[in-house]
Design brief:
This protein is α/β, with parallel strands linked by helices. The structure holds nicotinamide-adenine-dinucleotide and (2S)-2,3-dihydroxy-3-methylbutanoic acid. The site of nicotinamide-adenine-dinucleotide has 27 residues, from loops.
C-alpha cells in the first residue's frame, strides 16, 4: 500500500472550501497543510478541515514536506506561486485563469518544462458529468463528425459578492468564464486556430467586459460560437449551466437546462438526464460546478502517480489561453486573429 501524497493548499478563500471537501474524497492524496497570507483564513480552514498545519508563506514548499501543491488563488498571483513550486521541484495544480495574458502563461509553462516540474490547470468544466457523457457520445460516432457547436453561459447571478475582485478585473468575462467555454470547445470539437470576438460592458460599475461573443474556426474545419454574459436576465436563473449544442454530420446533441442532453439522430430523439453526485457538502446553485472538483483533483493525482498526461496540462492549456488572448485582440482590432502568431516559439 503506497502512502498518500501530501499536498499544500495555497489560498484559503472563497472557492477553496470546495477544493478541501474534494481533497477529502480523492484517493491517494491528502492536504497536509493550508497556506494563506491571511493567517486567520489559513487557521480557520485548517481547523475546519482537521488539518494540523497552517502557514502564511508559500515558501514552505522548500521544506521538502510536500509531494504537490494546489494553488487556489487569483490569476495575478500564479506566476510567483508556480515559480515557488518550480524552485522546490513540487508538481502543481493551479486554478484558472492560468495568468492574465498569454505571454505570462508562456513564461510559466516554459520555466516549468525546463525544470521538469509538472503543472496542471484546475480547469473543471470539462470534468462536469454532463460533458464527460457528451464526450462519450461524440466518441461513439452516434452523431458523426462534429461540424458546429455553440456553448453559451448567460445569466445575471450575483458573482461579485463572493468574488469581489471580479468587479475590478480589466480582463473579466473572457478570462473568468470564457476560459471555461474555450476549453470546453476544444474538449468537444478539437483545437481551434482563429477567433473573431465582440465584447460588451453592460452592467454599470464593472471594470472589464461582462459579455463576449466569440466565433472560432477549429482545425477540423468545424465552427463554434462561444458566448458568455453576466448581464443576461432570465427567470429561473440558469446559473451555473452551460447550454448549447454540438452538431455532427449524422445528428445533433443539445445541451439543455436541468442537465439534459437531447440526442437527435435519423432514428429520432432521446433525452439523457445527468444527475448530481449527491454529495453532502454541495449545495444549489453551485452543485454542478462543485461535483466536478473531486473528478478534476482525482485526475491530477492519478496522472501524477502514473506519470501520464494531464488532460489540462499547462502545455495543452496554452492553446486555450491563446484563444482567449486572440479574442481580446480581435475585439480591439475588429479583425479575426490567428493563434499561431501568439504561440510562436512555444
Ligand atoms: P479569493 O480571493 O477568495 O481567495 C484567494 C486566497 O488566496 C485569499 O484568501 C488570499 O489571501 C490568498 N492568497 C493570495 N495570494 C497568496 C499568496 N501569495 N500566498 C498565500 N495566499 C495567497 O479567490 P477565490 O474566489 O477563491 O478564487 C480563487 C481562484 O479560483 C480564482 O482564480 C478563480 O477564478 C478560481 N475559481 C474557480 C472556480 C471553478 O473552479 N469553477 C470557481 C470560483 C473561482
Ligand atoms: O466557476 C468559476 O470559475 C467562477 C465563475 C465562473 C462562477 O465565476 O469564477
Amino acid at each position: 500500500m503506497t502512502r498518500p501524497l501530501n499536498g499544500l493548499l495555497v489560498g484559503a478563500g472563497f472557492f477553496s472550501r470546495n477544493h478541501l471537501h474534494a481533497w477529502s474524497e480523492v484517493e491517494g492524496a491528502r492536504i497536509a497543510a493550508v497556506c494563506d497570507r491571511d493567517a486567520g483564513r489559513a487557521e480557520t480552514a485548517a481547523r475546519e478541515f482537521g488539518i494540523a498545519e497552517w502557514h502564511t508563506d508559500a515558501s514552505v514548499l522548500k521544506s521538502g514536506a510536500f509531494d504537490f501543491v494546489d494553488i487556489c488563488t487569483t490569476m495575478e498571483t500564479h506566476e510567483a506561486l508556480v515559480g515557488l513550486a518550480i524552485d522546490a521541484g513540487v508538481p502543481a495544480i493551479v486554478q484558472k485563469p492560468f495568468a492574465p495574458d498569454i505571454d505570462t502563461c508562456l513564461r510559466i509553462e516554459s520555466r516549468a518544462r525546463a525544470a521538469g516540474v509538472r503543472v496542471m490547470l484546475h480547469e473543471n468544466f470539462r470534468f462536469q458529468k454532463i460533458f464527460r457523457r457528451l464526450r462519450e457520445i461524440l466518441d461513439s460516432g452516434e452523431i458523426g463528425e462534429p461540424t458546429f457547436g455553440r456553448l453559451s453561459w448567460r445569466n445575471d447571478i450575483d458573482v461579485y459578492t463572493n468574488q469581489p475582485y471580479l468587479t475590478q478585473t480589466k480582463r473579466f468575462m473572457i478570462m473568468d468564464v470564457g476560459i471555461h467555454m474555450l476549453d470546453l470547445a476544444r474538449f468537444l470539437l478539437g483545437d481551434a486556430h482563429s477567433v473573431s470576438c465582440f465584447t460588451q460592458s453592460v452592467k454599470e460599475g464593472i471594470a472589464g467586459e461582462d459579455a463576449a461573443t466569440m466565433l472560432l474556426r477549429h482545425d477540423n474545419a468545424a465552427v463554434s460560437i462561444v458566448d458568455v454574459s453576466y448581464a443576461t436576465h432570465k427567470n429561473p436563473n440558469p446559473f451555473p449551466q452551460t447550454l448549447g449544442e454540438i452538431e455532427g454530420r449524422a445528428g445533433t446533441v443539445q445541451i439543455l437546462e436541468d442537465e439534459v442532453l437531447r440526442i437527435h439522430t435519423a432514428q429520432g430523439a432521446r433525452d439523457e438526464t445527468i444527475s448530481p453526485d449527491g454529495r453532502g457538502w454541495t449545495s444549489a446553485p453551485w452543485t454542478q460546478i462543485q461535483d466536478s472538483v473531486p473528478r478534476t483533483q482525482q485526475h491530477f493525482i492519478d496522472a501524477l502517480r502514473a506519470g501520464s498526461q494531464f488532460e489540462t496540462s499547462a502545455r495543452d492549456s496554452l492553446q486555450t489561453y491563446a484563444l482567449a488572448e486572440a479574442a481580446y485582440r480581435s475585439a480591439a482590432s475588429g479583425r479575426s486573429v490567428e493563434i499561431e502568431t501568439l504561440l510562436k516559439g512555444a
